[in-house]
Amino acid sequence: MLAGTHSQRSFKRVNEIIKANGNQKSALITILQEVQEEYRYLPEEILTYIATVMGISPSKVFGVATFYENFSLEPKGKYVIKVCDGTACHVRKSRDILKALRKKLELKEGQNTTKDLLFTLETVSCLGACGLAPVMVINDKVYGKMTPDAVEKVIDDIIESEGIVNDQR
Length: 169
Ligand code: FES
Prior knowledge:
The chain is of the alpha+beta class.
């Protein structure tokens, strides 16, 4: 549940974003992109708020937010891991990388984000670095020639850099 102060603060930032872009309908996608950058996803109450402020029907705003793959209506982790499952990566066993990550992050069937909102795991069809297959990207950092052991180490390093003790997660 959002505390009053949290949601007021959220709307303050949303107001700034709308103000900076103008509330013309043509600015909607840019506004949604900036809001998503801020919150890492598009919270439902913020989409409704944007619709009200911009004078657009909520269904239109939700329609845009669900149409584009880059928008997410679900909370995402601080670290978004994209594992490539394009042809070059697939033949170099990207599925094993994915399996190792799901196990390491303790993700259950159908779950892509860890409960502590630290990691989100996604697959993509080609990251454009096929020479480094199998490849994964975490936020903007590219990791090439991955092995199941190497991904475990990458995750451990991130957890360590966050100062989290493993068994507290
Ligand atoms: S197929 Fe994986 S980077 Fe191209």
